[in-house]
Amino acid sequence: MEFSVERQNFSARDQHREIKHWGLIDYEPSLCIMCEKCVHVCNEVIGDDAIEVKFGGYSSTIIPKNSEMLDCTFCGECIAVCPVGALTSSGFRYRANAWELSRIPSTCAHCSAGCPLEYETRHSSINGADEIFRVKNNFEFSSLCGAGRFGFDFNNRTKSNESAFNKAVEALKNAKAIRFSSMITNEEAHILQILKEKLGVKLFNEDARLFGEFMKSYSSVSGKLHHSGSLDAIKQSDAVIVIGSRIATDNPGVRYALTTASKHNGAKIVYAHPMEDALMQNVMTQMMKYEVGTEEGVMALLAHEILKDVDLDESERAFFDELDFGYLCAETNIGEEELSFMSKSFTRAKKRTLIIGNDLIAHERALNIAKLAALIEKYSDFSFVVVPRDVNTLGVSLINTLNPDEKIENIVGYNAQGDFVISSLEGADLSVPALNQQEGTFVNIDNRVLPANVALDYEGYTLNDIAQALGIHKKETFEYTQELNKKAGFKAVAFDNLENFLSPMGEDDRGYLLDEVACEANGVLEEIDDLPEFNGTIIYQCDPVLQFNNYTSKAKQLPSENFLRGSAQFSVAARISDGDMVEISFGATKIQRKFKLDDELKGTVALNPTFDISVDASRYRFEKSKIVRVM
Amino acid sequence: MHNEHVQEHFNNRNVTEIDSNYYMVDIAPYPTDGWGKFKRVLKRALRGELFVGLWVVLREMIRFDIHTVKYPEEKMPIGPRYRAVHEMKRLWESDTERCIGCGLCEKICISNCIRIDTKLDENSRKEVSEYSINLGRCIFCGYCAEVCPELAITHGGEYENASDQREHFLTFGDMLTPLDQMKAGTQVEFEGFGAITPHEDERVKKTPLAY
């Protein structure tokens, strides 16, 4: 009007753009402005490479790459980056108005990456109890996997009553041992440690105990308590070795850091594992496939290759001189040319990282492996990252003095099996709040102490109430935060003084980093043991994408496909076919699962999910198993 | 510059201008001393006003012009702006419900008695899956109707909501105009606050460059 344009004579016909339903993600093309942020984050940060732009002028859209349906790990990062809400979470869509949600910054409680996130809560429906409606993250500087984003409803809805509480106090008084899982805050672990000293009980937590022993052995060579690396170090490195972990599902945070390193720095990534992983295919530059069980030999070969031109101690040099290369190469199935190829590709690298996974920690020869890793870190420019198995494995290993698990009477289980079970899961004798219902801290893979906040209220008793009944007087659980084990590097910072945000420049201001602690370096390398052989039908304890533990399996949005997945070769070896119900026996465990043929897998190792069962963390993740078809 | 022909219409509510039948009541000054008060008492007692009233009753009785409303059988008409139990309106064009599930009524409700659950329906539209008003808490303030952008929730004339318990819930289906009423074209529009003014069409300006 002001420009004397009274009418316009042109128009563009509005196109019919159908809303696409891609499982957990909905895409509405009519809102899409084709900024391509989703494509960028999917390919350059996450590494799924699952969506692309379909070019075509006005009719450009985002489409799944090479398939009709979206086939990805459903991290939902594309939802987070979408500036116009064209990509949305189908589970959240139209359930609540965004402005009504209250945001609670916290830390993801599913794996040891400890990603920052915000729980968004609101009253629900007619009864009005609060519920988490969605999870958001600061996508500029951190990523979140699908378990964190969609698996938020693991809160405990069971209320506890006084009689159960009294029974729990009684059970603890008579207990010989407390068995607990690493899905626990530092403060609770500290309470358990106090209980141990007061009641004289044993503490069982195999996962943290093995991790602690691994790190102790590492310290005996490196002379310091904590590993040097972090997720940020991985992001910035240009040469990475990942060994002993199916890292994409074990710890998505590490995977995203690897993707970032690969795409931004052109990092050379060596992925050493007995099984290929389709999710790592885009990222890794060299697959180093070794035989199951020969991790010690592989580490020796790697250490030798990396340290061959380094000035070592006499005894250490002697160790390498005595190595029987013919035997090691033959048994591990790693050729010398593979190692020299690795060295060659690493020559120009400035920042290198060695990532060690849970296969090595739960290995029979873990202690020697730890020493070899420490040696690499000590004498080369490699920074070193150990991937803890559970969310707070690292914290528990620093706070608690743990005993080897044994089958005795009167065990109280805290989120674990026992004669009396205190748990935030179903079937507990006394219900306690889950990790999104309590204040506390975790120690993540970066050795950072991270605060977690109360997203949802819990009506009932906590571990602190039990401790009070047993004569340990602290009003609130978070009052223990400043009392955590100083000898392990914890600082005397009160819970309320812990920050929980990423700065506008992306610096991590959450919690604090553990202080470095010097240790006595008197460890001596042991000779490499005979490498074991694994034949027959081997299963690998490995969760599918988006699943980690009993809490993620509770989450309604996450797919809970608990199939035994194996290759065609495996199905022939085990004499089973796709869709069969099979009974898998390994160790003392017997479980029934459906077998599913997976085209992406090769070899005679099948993947057995563990998120819906409780698995003995003390055992090596590859298991010789007997697989029988049942009707 | 195009706006000169559009005049602002408001209902003129200044009663003194409209109706000249209004007049000031002539009130004599009140007595202040004892003698004056005594005179007033005598005057009132002996005036026979009582019989005036009795005569009126007798007159009306003889006329059989009885004004008593036999309540449960007979009801007084309710003013259009009376705020009683809520109603959910349908669209005149398509008979579908007007409510778009925006949740503003829930948000504005000062006695916190509205709860709404929405979800994505099979046509990828927002659908109200649960809607309830707790009449035990509702104070009938009318904010929900006022804030509703679609004139979907309104107050009706149904004031008989006695209940044997304090909590008395009203759900979406209860409030929605029945379809047969819609077919018959008898859905009553609310004329209270927030309703469309009768001459709304004239006040609406077209968007420039209207498609």
How is this fold's topology laid out?
The complex is a heterodimer of chains A (631) and B (211).
Chain A: E1 20-22, E2 25-27, H1 37-46, E3 51-54, E4 61-64, H2 77-81, E5 87-89, E6 102-107, E7 116-123, E8 130-136, H3 146-150, H4 162-173, E9 177-180, H5 186-199, E10 202-204, H6 206-222, H7 231-236, E11 239-243, H8 247-250, H9 252-265, E12 268-272, E13 286-288, H10 295-306, H11 314-321, H12 325-332, H13 336-346, E14 352-356, H14 358-361, H15 366-379, E15 382-386, H16 393-399, E16 411-414, E17 420-423, E18 430-431, E19 440-443, E20 448-452, H17 463-469, E21 512-513, E22 538-541, H18 550-554, E23 564-566, H19 568-574, E24 581-586, E25 589-597, E26 605-608, E27 622-624, E28 626-630
Parallel strand pairs in A: 9-10, 9-16, 11-12, 11-14, 12-13, 14-15, 16-17, 17-18, 22-26, 23-25
Antiparallel strand pairs in A: 1-2, 2-5, 3-4, 6-7, 7-8, 19-20, 20-21, 22-27, 24-25, 24-28
Helix pairs in contact in A: 1-9, 6-15, 6-16, 10-12, 10-15
Chain B: H1 15-18, H2 34-46, H3 49-63, E1 86-88, H4 104-108, E2 114-120, E3 126-134, H5 143-147, E4 153-155, E5 169-171, H6 172-175, H7 179-183, H8 200-203
Antiparallel strand pairs in B: 1-4, 2-3, 3-5
